[in-house]
Amino acid sequence: MKLALDPQMFFSSSSVYELPDIVASLGYDWMELSPKPDFVPFLKYPRIDDAGVKRLKKLASDAGVGIASVLPVLPWSGQTRDARAAGADEDLRQAAVRAWKRVIQITVDLGVEVINSEFGGRPEAPHISEAHFLKSMDELLPIFEREGLQLIFEPHPDDFIEDGLEAVDMIRGLNQDWLGFLYCTPHAFHQGHDPGTIIEAAGEKVRYVHLADAWNHLTSGGARYISNPPGNPARVHQHMEMGMGEVDYDAVFAALAAVGFDGVISSCVFGWEEDARGVSERQRDKALALIDKHFGADTTTKVRSSKIST
Predict the structure, then answer these.
(1) Which of 167, 192, 193, 306 is spaced 20 to 30 Å from 185 by Cα?
(2) CA Rg value for the chain
(3) Per the domain annotation, does 226 fall within a domain?
């Protein structure tokens, strides 16, 4: 098992080349690289060249930080995040596939074995999204397999697959051992089922976990959040520090232990840049406490970084 940090709260003030030292200073051995403008931007072609990839790999090695995963979000279903444009654009899909091929090469050159992503479509047009998603899979899955990579999917709010069990079924339907499932705790209330049900169904496919908290927007008859006009399809969730919201972490970690989880757990809090260091350190300690409680001291010892001062 690995404990990683997505250092997203440092993105606006730090280049991608500064991230390994930041992650190391916060007591983490592993880093997750999510969409960043000077690396792989959100919904855009990568912005790093081969020299930059080599530089980043060396800086991470020098800092004693492994890159647990690369997390691109690219429109491989040929659709944007604009709900008014539910149809698929074949030029956009082809551009996304082109970008994905470059992301795969970057990941391989970094020495990373895991890529995380979303299904990347529109909930208003799930059949169109699925058809174009599968078309992209036909082109890309042979490349992932050739390069020996794991591809791990998460159901995301406002995607064409939001339900946790439906995501597990799609992953199994793609029928590749190296495809996995990511359980994202801040999306817990958008996945349609309790954590234990989803994690049990995913079983050995659960390879990655994102840790952050969220409030349950479904309580109080769905009236906790007010958005106008009433009934609009906005997806409300947060990526808060653990303990600020209502995710049942004991249920999540008990379920993970029950299926023998041995993947990556990544802290992914967004939006608290003014206390980014404090939040990241507290997230680390809370994750270690949960690992100790549900997996045992031996696992905690293996996961705990030597960088943590005692």
Answers:
(1) 306
(2) 19
(3) no
